Amino acid sequence: TGDVTGTGEPVGGVCGRNNNSNAKIENCTNAGTVSGESYSGGVCGRNNGGTVKGSSNQNTGTVNGTGSNIGGVCGYNYNTGTVDSSNNNGKVNGSSYVGGVCGYNYNGTVQNCHNTDTGTVNGTSENIGGVCGYNYNNGASAKIDTCTNDATVSGQNYIGGVCGYNDRGMVQSS
Fold first, then answer.
1. Residues near 7 by beta carbon (within 8 Å), at least 6 away in sequence
2. pLDDT in tens, 2-48
3. DSSP assigned state of 141
4. Shortest CA distance to 153 belongs to which of 119, 117, 121?
5. Are 65 and 102 in contact (CB under 8 A)?
6. Residue 44: which of 8, 74, 67 has the closest Cα?
7. Which is it for the CA torsion 69, 133, 95, 29, positive or negative?
8. CA distance 50 to 74
9. Which of 19, 37, 103, 147 has the fewest Cβ atoms within 10 Å of its own Cβ atom?
């Protein structure tokens, strides 16, 4: 795919916003550079209750965001959204809430995902993770399950190899 640039939000290499429980992005690949402000992802910028999955679902392009919620696969996964069996091979750069797979997981699930050694994650502020920058459970369920990171992760505060900041969520088998 070609490069994708947005001055607003959300911005995604395949889809800007995947919205509601019937929405699915399956087995899609982005190889271009994705550039946006906030809510930017290599495959999907914002996943609201939908599903992003598939063994060939991946990002190989660079994702650059000037703001928050920046992810190699999905920038912002929320409202029981699922990111499953998706991989990131591209560099991810943002300010805060930056992750190799998902920037911010709010009451959603990120499972069976991998950030490879080429998926370097760089944040200029806080909540930076190799798989997920921020995992937040607000009464539903926020889960990171069976995910791995092989890349370098850097930032200022709340930096983790798998999850930068886990707030009442669950990180398991990762």
1. 36, 37
2. 999 999 999 999 999 999 999 999 999 999 999 999 999 999 999 99
3. -
4. 121
5. no
6. 74
7. negative
8. 12
9. 19
